[in-house]
Specification:
This is SRPBCC domain-containing protein. The protein is of the alpha+beta class and 173 residues long. It is built from six helices and seven strands.
């Protein structure tokens, strides 16, 4: 009898603790000079007001690596709308991944970043991704495709962000 892999949760929650100020964490999430350095190295462009657009553009090295693997990606790999913004504490956006046609056809999802300052110069960063109606995206961002070359999803991105803010270097450096 075959068993299927467990289905990813419709809401995924990730939390990391980072030795950094809330402002540095906020900048690392919202500024392209930071987002180009960690995770999948996208260039974030935010219109940081409710109703503003946001997008993640692929860097040239990322596009080249994907093309070399036979998986070309568009210039804009994720797009959405800013729903709530309260710097440096809370950012809520819609999220539509464009790298894969099947995932792009799924329902638009919602991502919430919450940053809380804690004693001792530490912040918690909680990412909540509401993935109802987007099962393939839920698998991807949940890291279930990691063994197939798709990376470790949100957990990997947040771990790399933490490493960058605390050490000045990423996993790749």
């Amino acid at each position: 009898m075959m068993t299927a892999a467990p289905s990813p949760a419709a809401t995924q929650v990730y939390r990391v603790y980072i030795k950094a100020t809330p402002e540095r964490v906020w900048d690392a999430i919202t500024r392209p000079e930071w987002t180009a350095r960690y995770g999948y190295t996208g260039l974030a462009d935010y219109d940081l007001r409710p109703g503003g657009a946001w997008r993640m553009r692929a860097t040239e090295p990322f596009k080249a690596a994907c093309a070399a693997d036979g998986r070309p990606v568009p210039d804009v790999i994720i797009e959405g709308e800013v729903l709530e913004v309260d710097p440096p504490r809370r950012l809520v956006t819609t999220y539509r991944m464009l790298m894969d046609p099947e995932i792009a056809a799924e329902r638009v999802t919602v991502v919430t970043h919450e940053i809380k300052e804690l004693p001792g110069g530490v912040c918690s960063l909680t990412l909540t991704h509401e993935l109802e109606g987007a099962p393939k995206l839920a698998e991807l961002v949940g890291g279930q495709w990691e063994d197939h070359g798709a990376g470790g999803g949100h957990a990997w991105i947040l771990s790399d962000l933490k490493t960058l803010l605390e050490t000045g270097k990423t996993f790749a450096e």
